[in-house]
Amino acid sequence: MSNEILNYDKVAEASLAKAQRDGAETMWDRRAAQKTQCGFGEAGVCCRICAMGPCRVSPVPGKGAERGICGANADTIVARNFARMVAGGTSAHSDHARDIVHAMHGAKAEGPFKIRDEAKLRRIAGEWGIEAADTKETYALAHELADMALQEFGKPFGTQRFLKRAPIARQELWERERIAPRAIDMEVTTLMHSTHMGCASDYESLFRRGMRTGLSDGWGGSMIGTEFSDIMYGTPSARPSSSNLGVIDAEMVNVLIHGHDPNLAEMVVLAAQNPEMVELAKAKGAKGINIVGMCCTGNEMTMRHGIKIAGNFYQQEMCIITGAIEAVVVDVQCIFPALPALAKTYHTRFISTSQKAKISGDMYIEFSEETGLENANEIIKIAVENFPNRDAAKVEIPDIKQDTMVGYSVEAIIDHLDAVVNSQLEDELGTVKPLTDVIYAGVLRGAAGVVGCNNPKQQHDYAHVKVMEELIKRDVICVVTGCAAQAAAKAGLLTLEAKDRCGRGLLEVCERVNIPPVLHMGSCVDISRILHIVNLCADVRGIDPALLPVVGIAPEWMSEKAVSIANYVVGSGINTYLGVIPQVLGSPNFTKLLTEDCQEFIGAHFVFEKDPIVMVDKIMEDMEEKRTALGI
Ligand code: SF4
Ligand code: FE2
């Protein structure tokens, strides 16, 4: 079977051919069954917010119905649909974060949920104004901080605490434009209210309310998710890992962890180290237990433990099709509902674990913070006992994997910069100043955050990799998260050797600082790390982040979470380039608001560009304009 969307992927063709032989259905069969996708939906002009509808208005102004039954026009319908995507995305990231904070609320010294980065705990407690943050007993402090974090979701007054990390200029802009995000649940609820039938119809107002909600994700839920995961599971530091389907080991019990929340994955990794389980695996004829990761669970676990990355979003089915996975263990987000049926084509057990994402079709073992390790032990036992059921005739693991470096948290990046500064004894330690210095000096032309998913509207991984390859050639350093990071890993861009694919300036920086030109910063909630480092750079120079030559890019995005992210990145003053066009073109007014007009009041805007090379040309122009304006 050949598929032009997968041309770029060396393993895809064999994998899909095997699926066909095995009688397994994949996303490509289902995509073909969809035939032409709905033009109204694509343009964002289909409304089913009330039961007088669904109403669809013309995606081309002046042709066909211009209003729904209630009178809503294309601008209102598009803006409401877009805003509801933000609400969905914000709720997903933030609800994930809340689970992390709940685990921390119940953390105990005797574990398994415990405090592993005490320095970060004390730093954030101090940042949030907790008294005696330096001296309080660790767990009393952790519980107090967790309590405060839980208030960030529902407090009746005030705005998000982490907003104070932004430079004053940005904080003032948020206040002036009335988009400083309040409690996260409040923002989501209010936005759902505003987009209810018969509420807001003004598209600009809807956009601003959506952006405020998105900002409650980036500077609230996602940032809490990142920072509190670090406190409990350790702040990532640079380490080697490996990526692509070849990390699945034919001689081991293979457990695929897929989803987003590190609470479950951390327990599964702990359980797999249990000597009793390892012995059991050997008794069943395996050499041991091999945990491999996918999507953001994979990112969380590779960043902190070097767990191998089996692949990104579009490879979730291919993993099972290898016939060598004993169990797929999932929690929340980005999990195809198709997986249990696919697993049944092989011996694979599919285990869903979250009340919030119960996936029907195979097993359900409910995970809770109280019984986390017991749940994980049960899961590992099922996987190990399933090993003898593997059908050797169906095992075919593509012999392709790529070494990679991961683990570049903000702290890890600063450590690397310190190592250089230290040797020269001339500058302050513990800051991102050397990074801004090389950008200001023109050694680097700018920096780009490349993030997001895979989407069959783009050739898989191609858009990610092309954008990064072209940027590093042109001396733009890249930081990556999510499935974009895994695309980079598979393409060998996260290695020290990738410096040879860079322009001269970036090559010099990579050599001196001993880093790859593309830095893996973690999962999708860890885009908050990117926000943090950009804001630290702006702070060093005393300017608004909007003035820096930095961009956000999502070449192959697909989820509501990505819409929320794009909103908070633009809302933080960073121009954001989308390789998949959001469903807004049915309203030229709303489209213009996103791509041009919001620049005036936010200082940043969205750019839609499907062609990765043209996108990079636009980005370079954007960066050079910023450089000229800064006089650098
Ligand atoms: Fe139709 Fe208005 Fe109801 Fe939407 S809210 S379905 S446009 S009547
Ligand atoms: Fe993700």
Automatic annotation (TrEMBL):
Gene3D superfamilies: 1.20.1270.30, 3.40.50.2030. Its EC number is 1.2.7.4. Keywords: 4Fe-4S, Iron, Iron-sulfur, Metal-binding, Nickel, Oxidoreductase. The keyword Transcription regulation does not apply. [4Fe-4S] cluster 2 binds at C47, C50, C55, C70. Its cofactor is [4Fe-4S] cluster. GO terms for molecular function: 4 iron, 4 sulfur cluster binding; anaerobic carbon-monoxide dehydrogenase activity; hydroxylamine reductase activity; nickel cation binding; peroxidase activity. It catalyses: CO + 2 oxidized [2Fe-2S]-[ferredoxin] + H2O = 2 reduced [2Fe-2S]-[ferredoxin] + CO2 + 2 H(+). InterPro entries: CO_DH_a-bundle (IPR016101), CODH (IPR010047), HCP/CODH (IPR004137), Prismane-like_a/b-sand (IPR016099), Prismane-like_sf (IPR011254). [4Fe-4S] cluster 1 binds at C38, C46. The keyword Metal-binding applies. [Ni-4Fe-4S] cluster binds at H260, C296, C334, C453, C483, C524. It comes from the Bacteria. GO terms for biological process: generation of precursor metabolites and energy; response to hydrogen peroxide. This is Carbon monoxide dehydrogenase.
